[in-house]
Design a protein that fits this description.
24 strands; S-adenosyl-L-methionine; Rossmann fold; alpha/beta; [methionine synthase] reductase (NADPH) activity; globular; 20% strand; six-stranded parallel sheet; methionine biosynthesis; NADP; 20 helices; flavin adenine dinucleotide binding
Length: 693
C-alpha cells in the first residue's frame, strides 16, 4: 500500500539572477532526505506541468525584478493566471506554498511573489503553508532557512490528510519516512568538536582547547577567519553537502569561443562603438563620474527617455589571472574545456548551467560567464569545506555556513561583499576544483544603466552616466577593487579622456573606436507624461540626474518642433557634494533654464561650507520641504508627476519622507491620510522611482 502512495510535490521557480533557482535546488536536494520527490521546473516551462490538473501540493519560489515585476521567466505564467475570463474556482483544487524573494530597499518589496500569490488566491487555490517573504537587504537566509525547515512538516500534513481521505491508516509510524520528516533537521549534520571537521589532513584530531592555544592572543574579536565563544565552542548544524554534478574535460587550444550574444537570453544584443567619453567631475571629487556616448545609428536599438539598458561586461582580467593561478591552471587558460553533466551524479535533474557554453576556453568561462564577485552562498561555503586542508580554516568555514554562524556570515561575508577571491586569500589551504566553481558561481549579470539622452534630440546616439564604483581594502578584502562594469568601462575609455585638471571640460572624440555589447531593458512606467501640458517634478541628486537630462532634451526638442503646444512647468531638485567639483551637467542645466525647457532648478551642496546667516539646505529632501506649497500644488491641484532617481538607501527613502511631510502639511491631514494620498499617486503611476541600492 505504501508503494502506491505518491509522495511527490511540484516545485516551480522563477528567477532573474539565479537566486530563486538556487533555493529551489536546495529544496529539491533536501526533499529526498525527507522521503519526498520534488518535480522541479522553471515557471516558463509550461509544457512540463499543468496546474489545472495538478493533484499534488505545489511549492513556488519566485523573485522580484525591476520596479516590482515578476521575473522574465514568469511573465507567460502570470499572464495566463491573470486571465479575467477564468472562473474564481479555476484552481480550487490546488494546494500551494510560496516563497517570495525581494529587497526591502525597494518600494514594491517581494511584489513578484505577492502578485502570483494574489492571483492564485483569486482563482481559488489554497495555502497549505504560509507564504514566506525573504529580504535580500538583511539576508535571504534569515527567512529562507526556517521556511524550508517548516516546509517538510507542512508537506507531511498534506500527505497525511491524503492518506486519511483514501481511508488509509493515519498511524504515523506506518510510513517509515514520516518520523524522519518530523525531524526538520534530519539532513543537517551535527558536528562534534572532535569530528572530522576538526582534523588536519596530516595530523591527529585537535580539541577546542588546542585551537585556542594556537590562536593569536590578540584574536579576542571575531573576524572572517576567527571566531570567539560561544560559536567557537559549539557543536554545529551545517547544511548537507551538495552533490557534484559537473564534469570538466580539458581539450586543445584550437577553436573559437562563442559569440557574446549567445550568452544573453534577455533580448537582442547589439555591439556598438563608444564614440565619446567625458569626465563630469573634477579630479579631486569624492567620486569619479563619467559620461559615455554610444553610436546606435546602424542598429535596430530603440529607446525612450527614462528607459534603461544593460551592458554586457567581463570580469576584471587581473582577477581572472589570479584565480587561474590559485587553481593551478595558469597554463591552461587558453585551453578549450568541454562541460558535461557527470553520469553518476546524485543531483536529480542535473543539467549544464545555461550560461556556460558546452565548449569554450577556460579563460572565456571565467571572464564572461561566472560572477566572480558574487557573495558566496552557504551551500558554496559547505562545498569549500571539503576542499580545505587546514583544520582551523576548515572549522571556520563550517561555522560560517552553519545555523549557529548566521550572524557571522551576515556580518563578515554578506555585509562586507566578500567574494570567492577574498575567501581564497583568507583561507589559503582551500583549493577548490574548477567544476565546483562552475556549479556554485552564478551567471555573470549584465549591468543596468539609465539612459541619459533623447533619440529625438540626438538621433542615433545613446548616452549614459555612471560613478566608477570602488570597494576599498579592508580586513576582509586585501586590495581595493573597482566595480566589475564601471571599472572595466573606465579602463576601456581611458584613452578617450583628455585630463585637464583646471577644467571640467575633459572630453574628446574617439579615434580608435572601442565597442561594447548592450541590450534593451525598457522601463514600462518611468517616462515623460504622455500629455506635455502636465507639469512634473524631478528629484535626481548625483548621477540620479541621468534620466532627467534625457527628459529635458526631449522636452526641448518638442518645444522647438511644436511651438503651438502647451507645455507644463518642470521642476528639478539636484544635489551634490561640492558646487565646483561634482555639479553634473551644470552648463546644460543652465541652458535648459534659460531657454524655458526647465522652469525651476533648485540645487544644494552637502559638503560646501556656507557663510550665510541662515543655514543652507544640504540635501534634496531639505529643499523639497522649502518648496512644499509648490510641490503640493503640482501634484494635488494640477495632477502632475513626481519622479525620483538615485540611491535608494541614502536618498530615496528620505525624499519619500519629505514628500509625506509636504502632503500632510499642505493638505492639513495626519500622516496616515498623507500616506493614502501617496499610495494613490503610486497607483496612478504619478509617483515614480528609478532607484538602486
Amino acid at each position: 500500500m505504501c508503494c502506491d502512495l505518491k509522495r511527490r510535490f511540484l516545485l516551480l521557480y522563477a528567477t532573474q539572477k539565479g537566486q530563486a533557482k538556487a533555493i529551489a535546488e536546495e529544496i529539491c536536494l533536501q526533499a529526498g532526505a525527507h522521503g519526498l520527490e520534488a518535480d522541479m521546473h522553471c515557471l516558463s516551462e509550461m509544457d512540463k506541468y499543468n496546474l489545472e490538473t495538478e493533484k499534488d501540493p505545489v511549492v513556488i519560489v519566485i523573485s522580484t525584478t525591476g520596479t516590482g515585476d515578476p521575473p522574465d521567466t514568469a511573465r507567460k505564467f502570470v499572464k495566463k493566471i491573470r486571465d479575467k475570463t477564468l472562473p474564481p474556482d479555476h484552481l480550487a483544487h490546488l494546494q500551494y506554498g510560496l516563497l517570495g524573494l525581494g529587497d526591502s530597499e525597494y518600494t514594491f518589496f517581494c511584489n513578484g511573489g505577492k502578485t502570483v500569490d494574489r492571483l492564485l488566491q483569486e482563482l481559488g487555490a489554497q495555502h497549505f503553508y504560509d507564504t514566506g517573504l525573504a529580504d535580500d537587504c538583511v539576508g535571504l537566509e534569515l527567512v529562507v532557512d526556517p521556511w524550508i525547515d517548516g516546509l517538510w512538516l507542512a508537506l507531511n500534513e498534506v500527505f497525511q490528510l491524503q492518506k486519511e481521505k483514501e481511508g488509509m491508516s493515519n498511524d504515523v509510524s506506518a510510513d517509515p519516512h514520516v518520523g524522519h520528516e518530523m525531524n526538520l533537521s534530519s539532513k543537517i549534520q551535527n558536528l562534534n568538536l572532535e569530528d572530522e571537521g576538526m582534523r588536519s589532513s596530516d595530523g591527529p584530531s585537535h580539541k577546542l582547547l588546542d585551537i585556542n592555544v594556537v590562536a593569536s592572543a590578540t584574536d579576542t574579536e571575531p573576524s572572517l577567519v576567527h571566531s570567539v565563544p560561544p560559536i567557537s565552542q559549539s557543536a554545529l548544524n551545517i547544511p548537507a553537502l551538495p552533490p557534484e554534478y559537473i564534469e570538466v574535460q580539458f581539450q586543445d587550444t584550437h577553436g573559437e569561443n562563442p559569440q557574446l550574444s549567445s550568452l544573453i537570453s534577455e533580448g537582442t544584443t547589439f555591439e556598438v562603438p563608444v564614440t565619446k567619453a567625458s569626465q563630469l567631475t573634477r579630479q579631486d571629487a569624492v567620486k569619479t563620474a563619467l559620461l559615455l556616448e554610444l553610436d546606435i545609428a546602424d542598429t535596430a536599438f530603440d529607446y525612450q527617455p527614462g528607459d534603461a539598458f544593460c551592458v554586457v561586461c567581463p570580469n576584471n582580467v587581473n582577477e581572472v589571472e589570479e584565480l587561474l593561478h590559485i587553481l593551478g591552471l595558469s597554463e591552461k587558460g587558453e585551453n578549450f574545456v568541454c562541460i558535461k553533466v557527470k553520469q553518476d551524479t546524485k543531483k536529480k535533474g542535473a543539467t549544464r548551467p545555461q550560461h556556460i557554453p558546452e565548449r569554450s576556453t577556460l579563460k572565456f568561462i571565467l571572464t564572461w560567464c561566472l560572477e566572480l564577485r558574487a557573495i558566496p552562498k552557504k551551500a558554496f561555503l559547505r562545498a569549500l569545506v571539503e576542499c580545505t586542508s587546514n583544520a582551523r580554516e576548515k572549522r571556520r568555514l563550517q561555522e560560517l555556513c552553519s545555523k549557529q554562524g548566521a550572524s557571522d556570515y551576515t556580518h563578515f561575508i554578506r555585509e562586507n561583499n566578500v567574494c570567492l577571491l577574498d575567501l581564497l586569500h583568507a583561507f589559503p589551504s582551500c583549493k577548490p576544483s574548477l567544476n565546483l566553481l562552475i556549479e556554485h558561481l552564478p551567471k555573470l549579470q549584465a549591468r543596468s544603466y539609465s539612459v541619459s539622452s533623447s533619440n529625438l534630440y540626438q538621433p542615433g546616439k545613446l548616452c549614459f552616466v555612471f560613478n566608477v564604483v570602488e570597494f576599498p581594502a579592508c580586513p576582509t578584502r586585501p586590495v581595493l577593487r573597482k566595480g566589475v562594469c564601471t571599472g572595466w568601462l573606465a579602463e576601456l575609455v581611458a584613452p578617450l579622456l583628455h585630463t585637464n585638471k583646471d577644467t571640467l571640460d575633459i572630453k574628446r572624440e574617439s579615434s580608435a573606436t572601442e565597442k561594447i555589447s548592450i541590450f534593451a531593458r525598457p522601463n514600462n512606467t518611468f517616462h515623460l507624461p504622455s500629455d506635455p501640458s502636465v507639469p512634473f517634478v524631478m528629484v535626481g541628486p548625483g548621477t540620479g540626474i541621468a534620466p532627467f537630462i534625457g527628459f529635458l532634451q526631449h522636452r526641448q526638442k518638442l518645444r522647438e518642433e511644436h511651438a503651438d503646444w502647451e507645455f507644463g512647468e518642470t521642476w528639478l531638485f539636484f544635489g551634490c557634494r561640492h558646487q565646483d567639483r561634482d555639479y553634473l551637467f551644470k552648463d546644460e542645466l543652465r541652458c535648459f533654464l534659460e531657454n524655458g525647457t526647465l522652469t525651476h532648478l533648485k540645487v544644494c551642496f552637502s559638503r560646501d561650507s556656507s557663510t550665510a546667516e541662515v543655514a543652507q539646505p544640504k540635501y534634496v529632501q531639505d529643499v523639497i520641504r522649502l518648496y512644499a506649497k509648490e510641490v503640493a500644488r503640482v501634484l494635488l491641484k494640477e495632477s502632475g508627476y513626481f519622479y525620483v532617481c538615485g540611491d535608494k538607501k541614502h536618498m530615496a527613502d528620505d525624499v519619500n519622507d519629505a514628500l509625506l511631510d509636504v502632503l500632510s502639511i499642505e493638505m492639513e491631514v495626519d500622516k496616515l491620510e498623507a500616506m493614502k494620498t501617496m499610495a494613490m499617486l503610486r497607483e496612478a503611476k504619478r509617483y515614480l522611482q528609478d532607484v538602486w541600492s
